[in-house]
Specification:
The protein is an alpha+beta fold. A hairpin with a 5-residue loop joins β8 and β9. α1 runs antiparallel to α5. Its main location: secreted. It comes from Tachysurus vachellii (Darkbarbel catfish).
Length: 432
């Protein structure tokens, strides 16, 4: 009954478009950030626990950056109305500046797990599941569920604990994947073990809540950019806010010369290949795609800024299907993300699915027919884009089209100091 009530609330109150279109806040984010003005700097005491979501912990992400907020290492000041001294609590994401030394500031994104409206409805659904119509202790209700009780008794994150959650990466989770989640979990004091002996009860609840609502912070921790993965650096969380490195949006390139756009297109194809074929033998794939999931770092590197829709298949251990596909594994955790709909079974995912999605929804916005006449882009690019975007083509043919696209775009990519991620190596080798 609680799940049906929550689904009804969603259909009537918040179906205003996919929430993740709003949470990616690289729009107009400058690549060079000046030192914030102390005049507009707000004191951390003006932050309310409600704004941060600390009043809802331990149904939250964590508290790893709360001290940095208190030390004023994270500031919203460029975006604050003078009279309010606080960002709007109706937004899903916020631009901010972050510093380690109070001298050099870097752009970052602070984002909620889901929109404020969805958080409110999810909290309401938790109370309804316990027979409470007005308010309740959200943490107490979640702790009383059989799902959390099973996790609390175990030192291992088991597939049975995450079964029925709508998070894309948990559609067919292997034990190796779940071990990596625990091993890289940033929000505990002693990170590095696949066992949860060092996890407190509140740590386990925070992890389970994050797994149920939004996988974004976990993906950034599991596959960090420092190890070559195409994801921004994760800095931590405070309450229901999480923070990662900022960038500018992909759409900022649309009016740029072909050289800049061809480099971005090449990178998107390349990182999509690296997601599918890597030394860890995890196949990461897109379940849905839009231009907003990609961003551009200061050095010209393309990152996947929205990892909330990425699925994962363990190529080493294989699929792990549900023991009983007909059994209903749903509970109050199953719809906290704002949707009760799960992604298609892993067995139905084609190796070429990610390429089909980016060739259909992203690359045509970077490469246009006018580039043939104005910039000398070979017309074959568009013929191969059509093949790549066609799901009726074989996987082999789509992969061949991807390689042709990369080979064709390679000579158009710039090699200068504006692209520090590949300069000066690109002067001496085509591999960069």
């Amino acid at each position: 009954m609680a799940l049906r009530s929550f689904s009804y609330m969603l259909s009537t109150e918040v179906l205003l478009g996919a929430w993740w279109h709003n949470w990616f806040l690289c729009l107009g984010l400058p690549l060079v950030v000046s030192t914030p003005s102390t005049v507009l700097s707000q004191d951390i005491n003006s932050f309310s626990r409600g704004f941060l979501g600390l009043d809802k912990c331990n149904a939250c992400v964590g508290t790893s950056i709360c001290k940095k907020l208190y030390k004023k290492q994270i500031r919203f000041e460029r975006w604050l109305p003078h009279q309010l001294h606080l960002p709007s609590d109706n937004s899903t994401s916020y631009e901010a500046n972050y510093t380690d030394d109070l001298e050099t500031w870097r752009p970052v994104v602070l984002s909620r797990l889901v929109s404020p409206d969805l958080h409110h409805l999810a909290d309401k659904s938790i109370c309804i599941s316990a027979g409470k119509r007005k308010s309740c202790s959200i943490e107490a209700v979640l702790r009383a569920t059989s799902r959390f009780q099973n996790l609390a008794k175990s030192n291992i994150l088991l597939p049975s604990v995450v079964q029925g959650l709508v998070t894309p990466m948990l559609r067919c989770p292997s034990q190796r994947l779940l071990d990596r989640i625990v091993h890289r979990y940033f929000e505990v004091a002693d990170v590095g073990s696949v066992q949860m002996k060092h996890f407190t009860s509140k740590d386990k609840l925070r992890l389970l809540y994050t797994l149920a609502v939004n996988q974004q912070p976990l993906i950034l921790q599991m596959f960090p950019g420092t190890e070559g993965w195409p994801f921004p650096r994760y800095h931590g969380s405070c309450g229901r806010l999480m923070m990662w490195a900022g960038c500018r949006p992909l759409r900022s390139l649309y009016q740029e010369p072909l050289a800049h756009r061809s480099d971005a297109a090449y990178q998107i194809l390349h990182i999509t290949q690296s997601l599918a074929f890597n030394s860890l033998h995890f196949r990461l794939f897109y379940t849905s795609v839009s231009e907003d999931i990609f961003g551009i770092a200061e050095d010209g590197r393309i990152f996947i800024m929205d990892a909330s829709t990425i699925g994962i298949i363990d190529l080493q251990e294989g699929f792990r299907s549900e023991a009983d596909p007909q059994h209903n594994y749903t509970d109050v955790f199953s719809c906290l993300s704002g949707s009760c709909t799960r992604t298609p079974p892993c067995e139905s995912i084609r190796p070429s699915q990610s390429f089909t999605l980016i060739c259909r929804h992203v690359l045509p916005k970077l490469l246009t027919s006018t580039d043939v006449q104005l910039s000398g882009l070979p017309g074959r690019v568009f013929a191969e884009l059509i093949v790549c975007a066609d799901p009726t083509q074989s996987d082999h043919r789509i992969h061949k089209a991807v390689q042709i696209l990369k080979d064709t775009l390679q000579p158009f990519r710039p090699c200068n100091r504006g692209y520090e991620y590949r300069y000066p190596e690109c002067r001496y080798s085509d591999k960069f």
